[in-house]
């Protein structure tokens, strides 16, 4: 399950690079050369970005080697959200709401609303790299309390950025948006978005490398080879390279990255975020706490199980329905 989620995320990140390149190469006012606007041209540029950024960053063993690149990528994510807010305020915020495609829906119902559930689950999955990050923490701060605090702060920042990007992006394009919002901006005509799109490519390269690590860890555990630190460098490079190449090939034949993220969130995300933690607690330490703590933990356990089952059933069904409907 860990391998499916992390490697599938790598496929989605390569697809996101293609979505970033689309408005850069197919701008109506400043079009690129004809070859780069073809499918082959798109794939060639995507492969170059993959080779320079994703493939090379996937080879190191330690996740700590990506810390500086990750800081740069997160900074550009914040910059991109700021650009979304500025663009919304300068163009369409407060515009007419009675024109076709410009309506503001305060709530969505039906399968479309349920389909968004899987994206929410996918966006907040942070468990896959917890053990690697915890193992590489400095001894002075290496304890569960610090790890919980850092994870809570990180998820709070992610929630804030997602809320701002979703709110102002929707107020900007409203019901015209279907799929990723990256296709609706014109970076060739806006210097701020041109810079932010380049930064997003850097962040996708870092995210690709971060997700490759749990993927290869899952392979090593299945082969009974231990942790990544126990594996020879040459074998680690071969496995990482093969996973990266397969992710690139698969991304070329997936028409919409939203399909990937919906399925990952609906199937793998529900197990990793809800069901597996609940069952792990149930079968390991559910009855070892004192009575004053046991009630609180059992309530949390039941909430995790119910949320996991509901998300798995309805989220996966909505994702499959959306694929068939398209």
TrEMBL record:
Domain Amino acid transporter transmembrane per the UniProt entry, residue ranges: 2-320
Compartment list: Membrane
Family matches, as InterPro entries: AA_transpt_TM
Membrane topology type: Multi-pass membrane protein
Keyword field contains Transmembrane: yes
Keywords: Membrane, Transmembrane, Transmembrane helix
GO molecular function: L-amino acid transmembrane transporter activity
TM regions (residue ranges): 40-59, 71-93, 113-131, 151-171, 191-212, 233-254, 260-283, 295-324
Pfam family, one: Aa_trans
Gene Ontology CC terms: cytoplasm; membrane
Major place of residence: membrane
Name the UniProt record assigns to this protein: Transmembrane amino acid transporter protein, putative
